[in-house]
Amino acid sequence: MTTISFSNGDVKKIMPDQRVIYYYADAQTTHTAYPDGLEVLQLPNNQIEIVFPDHTVKCLYSDGLKETSFPDGTVVNVEKNRNKLVLYSDGQRESHTAQFRRREYLDGTMKTLLCNSRQETKFSTGRLQIKDEEGNLILDKR
């Protein structure tokens, strides 16, 4: 291992496996760069940011929130309670909870799949369709 100490308090370590660990003294932040392109930042508030070689970024916050940003602009947030919110780059949204999965389309249409496999579609026109767990239409209210 090679260690370089800088006058500002920063420390750079080059590990035998070619990892480079750089500690920024002023920011109290550690940046680890792996040979395959993976990078990990550890911040003083216990937040961790991971940058993958494909430029996907994952942030692990101290409150339990996990946020992943993909190169195409899609962002996925997973809360400590495991609820998930997907924000697509085109503006669509998708929510996942223990009770349902819901997709919100740009025109205002919302499709919901309930935990009992029932499907509800609320169209932007106000129309409501409900299908049972087998896909049979049980309500079509215009």
UniProtKB/TrEMBL annotation:
One GO term (biological process): centriole elongation
Listed GO MF terms: tubulin binding
Signal peptide span: none
Domain Centromere protein J C-terminal: 63-94
Transmembrane segments: none
Organism superkingdom: Eukaryota
A GO cellular component entry from the record: centriole
Family: Belongs to the TCP10 family.
The protein's name: Centromere protein J C-terminal domain-containing protein
Organism: Geospiza parvula (Small tree-finch)
